[in-house]
Amino acid sequence: MTNNSVGNAGRLLWAALRALLVLTVVTGVLYPLAVTGVAQLAFPGKANGSEIKDASGKVVGSELIGQTYNLPLKDGEETASPDLKWFQPRPSNGLGANSVNPQYKIILSGATNRSGDNEDLINWVTDAKAAVVKDNSTADFKVKPSDVPADAVTSSGSGLDPHVSPEYAKLQVHRVAELNHLDVAAVEKLVADHTDDRILGFIGEPRVNVLQLNIALKTLVAAKG
After folding, report:
1. Phi/psi at 207 (nearest 5 deg)?
2. What's the first-to-final CA gap in the chain, in angstroms?
3. pTM listed for this prediction
4. From 28's CA, which of 44, 95, 122, 184 has a CA 20 to 30 Å away?
5. Pairwise CA distance, residues 178 & 40, whole Å
6. Burial bucket for residue 92 (CB in 10 Å: 0-12, 13-18, 19+)
7. What CA–CA distance (Å, rounded) separates 211 from 66?
């Protein structure tokens, strides 16, 4: 009886070991290789991170993750000031020193988790709106608080949104044109050329990828000399 029990246990263990080996090879090696191969053949750009290259061919980021465009951090500053020569993204989970993720660090993604009547959130939005009005008002273009779109003063759910609304991009046109000594019409055309419509015509909202827009702006500035 004891020998039979030992034999049965041995057969069960051997069967379990074979199943483990087969499943490890199938699900741990063959399946990942097959999925990776199909992705590389059918969607190579997306499979490799949706990389964006500048005019020189250098990879400068991903079209799926936002970036900041700031001046070098000065002594005594907790957060760097935006470099207003460039189109600016939407805030990333709050603003300034109070931000959960002010620098679009991909290690930290998420919303501010504050309700609409939260005092901190109200203060962030109020301060952000005042900054947008101040930064984007030029000698011949005055921004009113009512002109500021919601995405200019609030972060996305992930805090890493690479897009802004066409309204926010257009709001920045006069500032960008003035600081880069460009014609307003030329910068307006950049925004129009980089505005993507709703997916399939009805999913989502029109949007502008800030990184792609700034790459085109850099090319335009370089061409102007």
Report:
1. -155, 160
2. 93
3. 0.79
4. 44
5. 43
6. buried
7. 7
Torsion of CA 103, 161, 89, 63, to 10 degrees: 100
The answer to whether 50 touches 36, Cβ cutoff 8 Å, is no
CA distance 23 to 220: 55
pLDDT 10s digit of each residue in the chain, 225 long?
566 677 788 788 999 999 999 999 999 999 999 999 899 888 888 888 888 888 888 888 888 888 889 898 887 777 778 999 999 999 875 444 334 444 566 555 666 677 778 888 888 889 989 999 999 999 899 999 999 999 999 888 777 889 999 999 999 999 999 999 999 999 999 999 999 999 998 999 999 999 999 999 999 999 987
- Measured in degrees and rounded to the nearest 5, phi and psi for residue 173 equal -60, -50
Distance of alpha carbon 223 from the chain centroid: 27
CA–CA separation, 129 and 109 (whole Å): 23
Main-chain dihedrals φ then ψ at residue 175, nearest 5 degrees: -65, -50
Residue type at 155?
S
